[in-house]
Amino acid sequence: MTEEADWGELRALAEHIEAGEPLVLSEAVRGLLTRTAQQVGLTADDADQALASQSGAVTLLREVYRRIQDGSDRLSHALLGAYRLRDTGNTAEARKLFERLLSIEVVPLYRQQAELAIRDLEAGRF
């Protein structure tokens, strides 16, 4: 999946920046930041504006990385909680976990996974 490959590259870049290395705004880095920004619910305009300056690009990188991490954590917690609830026969509360996640999640991939989990719950495949 392209998102995963891009996200891996983005994580590596974020780690370098957090270690104190400068962000070099090459065409490849600009492309990576533009793609990943859109993959986490930011617009191309948001990315373009951020990429107009070095500090904006670093802020964009950190925001994209934060959205990936936070969304992943939220989805993982919802899944674990839903499995526990499912095992006790409480699929209604399991569904509510995903509905709460959907009320705040901005990353399209994580939203899609939560929606699929709800469908699977309703179909008895979760």
Structure overview:
- The protein is mostly helical.
- Helix 1 packs across helix 4, helix 4 packs antiparallel against helix 5 and helix 5 runs antiparallel to helix 6.
- It starts with a helix and ends with a helix.
- The mean pLDDT is 95.
- The protein has two domains: 67 residues, no CATH class; 54 residues, no CATH class.
- The chain has six helices and no strands.
- It holds the Pfam family DUF2379.
- This is DUSAM domain-containing protein.
- InterPro entries: DUSAM_dom.
Throw out a few tags for this protein.
mainly alpha; single chain; 126 residues; 2 domains
| Spatial extent as radius of gyration | 17 Å
Cα distance spanning the termini: 23 Å
**Major β-sheet annotation:** none
Residue-averaged pLDDT: 95
Brief account:
This protein folds into two domains: 2-68, no CATH class; 70-123, no CATH class. The chain is built from six helices and no strands. The chain has helices spanning 2-18, 27-39, 44-50, 54-87, 91-104, 108-123.
